[in-house]
Amino acid sequence: MNTKNDEKLKLSGFNNLTKVLSFNLYDFCITMNKDQRHNYIQYINEKYNAKKIVEVSKKICEIIEANILNISKQDYDPVGASSMVLMSDVKGEGKWEDSSSPVSAQVNCHLDKSHITAHTYPDASDPEGICSFRVDIDIATCGEIIPLNAINYLFQAFECDVVFIDYVVRGFTRTADGKKIYNDEYFNSIQDFINPSVLENYDFKSDLNLGRDNIWQTKLMVKEFGAERYLMDKSDFNHPDIDKQMSLLKQEMEDVFHLS
């Protein structure tokens, strides 16, 4: 926890600051026929099934130095997956338990600390063949954990064509002399936490910073890339409809970016 002058805040020990990072991303794909749409759903279900997104959540816990208490996960028929990880900001206490077993008595006093939820939403229903995959990851923490530190890993873990990142801080803590403070981390923008080499991949950037209200939002849309980035079947690169499909893809991204 740093102040504007990078000086360590001395807290009283009471801290009910709740910090919520919502990372919502969209990845797009061009399919040319029904079989390719089916193959896309199979690909997503294999690459981002419940087991895989649990691994992402566990890595987030490692990055933000949180201790895993309990994990639950679920795959859905025909598409999609969900997971939830309960965690604590006290390292070395608690014990990981699979959701198929009762939670250990060691962890029951820590369940109010924090959690990570992840939900996936594959879509192959567009008659024009523009498929998409959306994942929502919410990291809610209490105490001194800073979830913003996990942002760059999330860009590595997923292919991100359109990204929405929201960050909200609520509650308060007290300094050692009893003064209430409503944020223990001072910054200007969510983009301050994103690696510049990642930001270079995005042409469209929207940034909302309401520091006085402890609310921040960043929206990003990827630069234009060639069709090979998006084709389900790379052999369709010279397909006679490829220009039309790329135009539809661009329009789909813009619609999502502007939420139209």
What does this structure look like?
This protein is α+β, with helices and mostly antiparallel strands. It has a single domain, classed as S-adenosylmethionine decarboxylase (4-Layer Sandwich), CATH 3.60.90. The strands form 2 sheets. The protein has a 9-stranded mixed sheet. A 3-stranded antiparallel sheet has the order 1-9-10, with no helix packed on it. It is built from 5 helices and 12 strands.
How would the blueprint of this fold be written?
Layout: E1 11-15, E2 18-30, H1 34-47, H2 50-63, E3 67-75, E4 81-88, E5 97-98, E6 114-123, E7 130-142, H3 151-157, E8 162-170, E9 173-175, E10 180-181, H4 196-199, E11 202-210, E12 215-222, H5 242-258
Parallel strand pairs: 3-5
Antiparallel strand pairs: 1-9, 2-7, 2-8, 3-4, 4-6, 6-7, 8-12, 9-10, 11-12
